[in-house]
Specification:
By secondary structure, the protein is an alpha+beta fold. Among the domains are: 21-164, no CATH class; 424-497, no CATH class. Helices cover 44% and strands 18% of the residues. It has a five-stranded antiparallel beta sheet, covered by helices on one side. Strands 11-12-13-14 form a four-stranded antiparallel beta sheet, with no helix packed on it.
Length: 504
């Protein structure tokens, strides 16, 4: 059989399949005109719209109205609606689907700055369909306006209507495969169009194809370029960068590799304490690779998670933020904290909230970080940078942080803090501490002058004192070991903040 006979046989087979009612597959080539006409007539019969038609879901109603719009020749969009509780769940009680030309464009606030405005597409069209389930189990069409105030699209032009365009799963797979092999957009779209009998049978236009690939690349960049930073605080209370890595995923195996690699670059040294977010995979990797390191959870991350998991409480109660902060920071003794936490749960009806229960179970790991690096990174890096520009901008960040540390070192060696009172302890502190740490110490020293100190006993080299502040309802117990030159306070603020403070 020669090539011409093969082509004729293939066409005959395709026609026979369509006449026999066999399903069409895109790889069979262009759909015969007769088959396309029959499919169009069948589709037109299925989208006869009238009052009283029922739908199981809001999405079903949208799809039906969109199919009707395709037959008539216009584009639709979701408009106003009302949500409420029904059948034990929150759902749409009624919803309006309208023509995309509905409404009138308001005044453009950019009139003075924009040289070329977009064409106006809204002309006050009143065509719409309204559904409701307020008085029935299913959604029912309760209002339907069919008249339009604009020219409708002809059958060949309907591919340009926005709501009638979409890239299906099979087309998306082919698009990503073609893009991975470096096939140009024009060639890829042309091949797909040829298989279905032309661009008007694709179901999308080339701009949709390009936008889809761009969105996929953006998602892959966000997903596949996880940026991990090891940061710390220096003697000037500045955030410094110890190391960084680009990770492909957030599995425990990846974090194990990360911690091992960081340890090797630090000549085998491990951090004594590390603060992270509440990532389970990271916690598993830390327990496996650095079991001696104290693992704590950053309070900043807990606040961010609270805003996400308790957003209804944040929006409903203006006092919740203050009460939540008080529970975290204002209680030195466990029983005081427990009372405050229980009162907060009762006040905001969070007794059965799973997120609050989980945070309470992790309370021993809470810790405060002095400064967040995320806000500084945003000034240098955005997710849409390519890899080369990303590294250039990150190097700028590292250079700027090193320069600030160098500046602080210079000031510390070339100047000394001015003393409000030239007492010996401040003179000594000014000679050994950096200006930033001296400022903290000086503030806490002033606060101690308002505290009462009482000796409470002595055992060997350990002397116990009671410290009473007029601003606190409880007293603190301070133990000083003269042999080891160590001190411990019952408030545990040194472990939490990093400096011995009376915390009035």
């Amino acid at each position: 059989m020669n090539a011409e006979d093969a082509i004729i046989a293939k066409k005959r087979k395709r026609v026979e399949r369509s006449e026999a009612g066999h399903p069409y597959h895109p790889d069979q080539g262009p759909r015969p005109k007769k088959a396309r006409a029959e499919e169009k007539r069948d589709r037109d019969k299925e989208v006869i719209l009238k009052l009283g038609i029922e739908f199981e879901t809001e999405q079903d109603a949208y799809d039906f109205y969109n199919n009707y719009a395709c037959v008539v020749g216009f584009s639709i969009r979701r408009s106003k609606g009302h949500k409420g509780d029904k059948d034990g769940s929150r759902k749409w009680l009624d919803r309006v689907f309208c023509c995309s030309c509905e409404g009138i464009l308001g005044n453009d606030k950019r009139d003075d700055n924009v040289k070329c405005h977009r064409p106006e597409t809204r002309c006050g069209c009143l065509a719409e369909m309204k559904i409701s389930c307020r008085y029935s189990e299913k959604y029912c069409v309760v209002k339907f306006v069919s008249e339009h105030t604009h020219v409708l699209a002809s059958p060949r032009k309907r591919i340009f209507l926005r709501s009638q365009r979409s890239i299906n799963l099979a087309q998306a797979v082919k698009a990503e495969l073609a893009d991975s092999f470096g096939i140009a957009l024009r060639a890829s779209v042309g091949l797909m169009a040829r298989r279905v009998g032309g661009l008007d049978n694709l179901g999308f236009i080339p701009e949709d194809y390009n936008n889809y690939l761009r969105t996929r690349r953006t998602e892959e960049m966000k997903k596949g370029r996880l940026f991990a930073l090891f940061v710390g605080v220096n003697h000037h209370k500045q955030t410094i960068i110890f190391g960084a890595a680009l990770l492909y995923d957030e599995t425990s195996e990846t974090f194990m590799w990360l911690f091992d690699s960081f340890q090797k670059t630090m000549f085998g040294k491990k951090p004594q304490t590390i603060l992270t977010n509440q990532d389970a995979a990271m916690a598993k990797a830390l327990a496996s690779q650095w079991p001696e390191t104290h693992h704590h959870l950053c309070v900043r991350h807990m606040y961010q998670n609270a805003a996400k998991n308790l957003k209804e409480v944040f929006g409903r109660y203006n006092t919740f933020v203050a009460d939540f902060s008080s529970c975290v920071y204002d209680h030195d003794y466990e029983d005081d904290f427990l009372d405050a936490w229980d009162n907060m749960l009762d006040k905001y009806y969070l007794k059965n909230n799973s997120w609050s229960q989980r945070q309470f179970e992790l309370r021993e790991k809470w810790a405060l970080r002095s400064e967040s690096m995320n806000s500084q990174i945003k000034w240098y890096i955005t997710y849409n940078y390519d890899l080369l520009r990303f590294f250039h901008q990150f190097q700028r960040l590292v250079d700027d942080r090193r320069f600030e540390e160098l500046r602080a070192d210079f000031k510390a060696t070339q100047s000394k803090p001015s003393l409000e009172y030239p007492v010996e302890i401040l003179k000594h502190v000014a000679s050994v501490y950096t200006p930033a740490i001296f400022k903290l110490f000086n503030h806490e020293l002033w606060l101690t002058w308002d505290c009462e100190l009482h000796k409470d006993g002595e055992v060997g080299f350990v002397v116990k004192y009671k410290v009473i502040s007029p601003r606190k309802s409880r007293q603190h117990i301070v133990q000083f070991d003269s042999l080891a030159s160590t001190m411990m306070c019952s408030c545990n603020k040194f472990e939490f903040v990093g400096i011995y403070v009376p915390m009035p």
